[in-house]
């Protein structure tokens, strides 16, 4: 089912450009990898929008039209959000209210709603209590009953709204520990118990199936590694990306290497097919190009691990070269190129 999501600001449409997409390659298909030309802008992830002003929202599917009808108080932050539902077949109209604080648990709250998505008879509401603290609520339609809720970090919904991919949230952690990234996917086609295959359904911080790195479990505290200097995984792309309805991609750095990670969810979240490809640091970074941009001491530290200079701004399919993806890098004076086309691993 192809669904539409329309998001408008309260004072008019606003676009925030934080990354870029692509146009077609002008050259012949690459043999292995090459630089590329022609880049246009991707819409930003909704969690990156301004925090402090509620926007109007509408979501449509073949069966439903849902809009955020009002919020109270109008002065930010709101304490409750009223949704209006219209059944496209029966034309019946109903409403439900989402409160910022929801008993019995007071562990999570929503002060601002960033995104709404429909999958079948389920509505996904992504909201924030703080600038970087996202909560997902899964709501039954048309009753408005909350089926599930969980915290997530950097969530991005698949094009068909079936999956939401995100990083495991970081709990409070006493003692000398490091935080390592665990990449998770929640399936809206399944219930809350399915999406917590090993743990209690009422745990708010451990929803979703772990798809990367190898051995990740999404157990409570599983993204905490003893020691402040322990090697850890961390996302080196600006966000998670969907190449199509069931394939996500990102780059991960561990401990001094960047890898393109491609996750195929054709067989659902419990059976991901994960492939990776190493990004060649020496082919992307030339410290001689930027020796005048850093002090001798800084350049010495950078030369010990230049992989940290690689930040991927965007990952997109290469439209004229099936089986390839295009990477766009954040600008850096040390980079030998700004774009790279790679064969999928």
Report on the structure:
It is a single chain. The protein is mainly beta. Helix content is 4%, strand content 42%. It has 2 helices and 25 strands. The strands form 6 sheets. It has a 7-stranded antiparallel beta sheet with strand order 9-10-11-12-13-15-16, with no helix packed on it. It has a 5-stranded antiparallel beta sheet with strand order 1-5-6-7-8, with no helix packed on it. Strands 18, 19, 20, 21 and 22 form a 5-stranded antiparallel beta sheet that branches. A hairpin with a 4-residue loop joins strand 20 and strand 21 (258-264). The two termini are 28 Å apart.
- Estimated radius of gyration: 21 Å
Structural class: mainly beta
What integer is the average pLDDT? 85
* Strand adjacency order, main sheet: 9-10-11-12-13-15-16
Subunit organisation of the chains? single chain
* Poorly predicted tracts of residues: 1-37
Helix content: under 10%
User: Counting H and I runs of at least 4 residues, what is the number of helices?
Assistant: 2
Rough outline: globular
Top keywords for this entry?
disordered N terminus; 345 residues; single chain
Provide a concise account of the structure shown.
With 345 residues, the protein is mostly beta strands. The protein is built from 2 helices and 25 strands.
